[in-house]
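haha ok so turns out i had the wrong file open the whole time. this is the CORRECT one, sorry everyone. sequence first:
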Amino acid sequence: MPGSPQNRQSYAVACPCGTRTSLDARGFGKPQRCKSCSATFTVAWGRDPGSGKAVPVVMAQRKPASKAPAGTAAPSGAGLVPPPVED
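then structure:
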């Protein structure tokens, strides 16, 4: 049966930390989580400059910005520059 899991080609890729994993073409373009370092990366198609063939390329994702713990918000207006003092 075409499209069955046993007929899909598997591609070996490496996380930026060096851990190797494999996925089929359905996983390309979707965020993947590394089982070793928990980083998120996306696999895309790229072109090998030597052979000109299409090859899987790992695109590292930016880590999410850390959020301030609950209850540590600055009071309203804090951090704003006061108006200039006129003589």
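The chain has no helices and five strands.
again sry for the mixup
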